[in-house]
Amino acid sequence: MLASDIISKLESIAPREHAFEFEVTGLIAGDPNKDISILGITWAATRDAMIYFGYLQESNAVKKENIPEMLILHEHPFFEETSEYFTSLPFFSKPPNIGRIKTIIATDICTYVMGSNFDDADGGTADIIARAFAMSVDAKIKCGRIGNVEPLSFTQLVHNCKNILGLDVVRYVTGQASVSDKISRIGVFIGYGLKSIDVIEQMYLNGAEVIISSGLNQKSATYISELGIRAIDVDKKKLESPAMKFLAKWFETNFKDRLIVQSYDPEDIIFYM
Fold it and tell me: What's the DSSP call for residue 17?
């Protein structure tokens, strides 16, 4: 199966024009005319993911066979600083970027990124997570869904969130509300929604009593509290990686006679004491 055929399938699911303007998506490396027999799908090109697929090799390890010729990622594989604090280190001089560029070139991987366009797509990440929370969705914003749930306490919602997303801990904001108050309407936003006042406001205007997303900071927590709503801050990877597993299963089901699909969920690297 040609890489271009796989790309056509991906872009029929999640058109690139649906991505945020600042985000780079699509084929960022490799030949679209390359024949693909093994497809790798993962959330990010972390070191453990690249070792799993066989692009990198640990010392004394047996060289992996059946290495994917194409890799589909949710996260862009390169690190880029967008702040104005320190700009002296150019993009291509950042050591992890150098390592990843060398790996991609050396192994000739077709590398495709589908990020916010997949998050916002019908049936994409936001809808997958909304279904996991048994939401009856009746409002949508880009990469976010708002809807009703069976009434439950905030405490129970936190427990559900940890169970559904496989989390040991979460951070949350309750404002002046009691954790035992019943909740019947929630919003989920894929990405750093709790970092954005505009996202929070859109969720609030659509009636969300609790927002589940990532990126909470002191400023946004204060804003949420003063709006009189609540928020649950979760690991961004935990919100997004279920959709990549879903995508892998979709390829396995629909192209089992043409592709071997390998899926990997990168290891957690944030720990708590």
Answer: G
* CATH number belonging to domain 120-234: 3.40.1390.30
CATH top-level class of 3-73+75-113+239-264? alpha beta
β-pair partners for 113: 26, 73
Residues 144-193: tens digit of each pLDDT: 999 999 999 999 999 999 999 999 889 999 977 777 789 999 999 999 99
The domains spanning 3-73+75-113+239-264 and 120-234 adopt the same CATH topology: yes
Please report which helix (H) or strand (E) contains residue 216, including its range.
Answer: none
User: Burial, 35: exposed, middle or buried (Cβ in 10 Å; 0-12, 13-18, 19+)?
Assistant: exposed
Q: Identify the DSSP state of 255.
A: S
105-128: buried (b, 16+ CB within 10 Å) or exposed (e) per residue? eebebbbbbbbbbbbbbeebbbbb
Asked if pLDDT for residue 83 goes beyond 70, the answer is no
What are the DSSP calls for 117-177, one per residue?
A: HHHHSTTSHHHHHHHHTT-EEEEEETTEEEEEEEEEEHHHHHHHHHHHHT-S--EEE-TTS
pTM, rounded to two decimals: 0.90
CA-nearest of 161, 155, 256, 139 to 214 is 161
- Whether the CB-CB separation of 94 and 209 falls below 8 Å is answered with no
Cα distance between residue 206 and residue 253, in whole Å: 36
How far is it, in rounded angstroms, from Cα 216 to Cα 185? 20
The helix/strand/coil state of 101 is helix
Domain residue extents for the chain: 3-73+75-113+239-264, 120-234
Gyration radius of the chain's alpha carbons: 20
